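User: Hey, my collaborator sent me this sequence without any context and asked if I could get a structure. I don't really work with proteins. Can you help?
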Amino acid sequence: MPIAAVIGAIAVLLACWASVAQPARAQAVTVQAASTAGAAAPTLVTTSAGALEGVATATGAEFRGIPYAAPPTGELRWRPPQPVESWTGTRAADTFPPVCPQAPPSPSGSSEDCLYLNVTVPAGLADGPLPVIVWFHGGGFEIGEGADYDPAKLADAGAVVVTVDYRLGLLGFLAHPALANQPGGANGNYGLMDQQAALRWVQSEIAAFGGNPGNVAIAGQSAGGLSVLAHLASPTAKGLFHRAVIQSGAFALVQKSLADAERDGQASATALGCDDQSAECLRSVPVESLVANQPLSITPGYVDGTVLRESVGTAIATGRFNRVPIVNGVNTQEERIFTNLGLSVTKGATTVLPGPIDASNYEATIAANFGVDQKTAARIASAYPLKKYPSAAQAFSVLNSDANFSCPAIVLDAAASRYVPTFAYEFNDAAAPERFVPDTLGAPTAATHQSELQYLFDLPIAPIPGELSAEQQQLASAMREAWVQFARTGSPATDAVAWPEFELRHPRVLSLETPAPEVEPRFAADHHCGLWAGVALFGAR
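Assistant: No problem. I've predicted the 3D structure and written it out in structure-token form, which is a compact way to encode the shape of the chain:
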């Protein structure tokens, strides 16, 4: 397929996701009376860098655009995040920050000066400090921002919620030997370094907002979920959090070596006109050129020897990780949203499918997608016979979801449960409104990538309108309570959700569905995980 067609297909997906972020920048700040259900949340807070004035909302208070690191511009481009400079007087925290550079551009603009976070505090603070949930947004490490997610309802369940912006694309993940502090030194994982800087900010500052720095849960979806996995595996994140929630994040359990990443980085430098491969040239490249020359798929972190010393799957499987309780889950048919767009997320990389899938090219598409021989493709196809599905596209979507998301998730559950309390889920509400990409695959529908987000956060700027039914609102409330309960205690079990721990001898996965969640004991069998383990498409090395 011509490279222009590949770029065009990727752009469709990015545009769908980016449309979530764009209108957010234009929203006016509305100061509302605080909830009368309890004491009003404070809007004036003093941090070690200076005072902040947030805004009162109907459910508490928000502090928007708080700097957690110095602007990574000029000589600080492609360097670890540096401390924030203090300010005098009171800094207004009533406006969301610029988005980190990404494509397509936000109508309100973007800036390399984008290392900011937002804090949402509920009204009626309890006698003691509240648990903290730190949210890392998804978007393939290429697009998105914290302001895409309105966490007011999640916070109202009893937590202080922090959403984080971090460097994306080449600015966040370019690995190049010229950028190392010393020959052969670590480089490339700047976006992950940013996230850890935000976690250090939480440790030092969140008490002023009513949060408990000794009770921090990190959570994220898709690239954000993989970020959570990276911090579990990262020795430099030790002690910065106490719980971990991974939503649709187990799709890349193996990371590139630094040597491979640096070879890719040198190719990027050449494409940017830096034939001399120097840091000086790279730091002089206009940000617009960096965005325009964005690779098709950003590798989710590198084994750089510092932030990551090994792949995340290896770290979890061997117990060499930050041992905290884990919630890990997937949605029923994660790849459905990508199949609708003619894309596939396989082995952590987004690729374009060869073309429309039908009975005549079903096995050939499987072989091309997974890089397997025809015999293996036929074995996979026999486990997903076309007669069981209304179309070849639906069959492919199901098998691709099992291979790339569902089965890696159960591998992760099995590995983590040997060392820490682990709680597994599958979000299974087939009637969840599609808020991001129109579904063209037809009935039967299924929950897909991003479907669960609207149950945890309000998404008023999602490109497709959608309302939850009364039963779905009940499920959403139960999920928010479970997430906060997990942040508070290390177990997501509540009066509304009896959520059992995942154990190797009892591999129970909680199905989040209406009218009420229930345990599904045959998750691995239902998703053909024995087949995929034999094909060896996932796992750690």
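In plain terms: The first helix runs from residue 3 to 21. You can pass these tokens on to your collaborator as they are.
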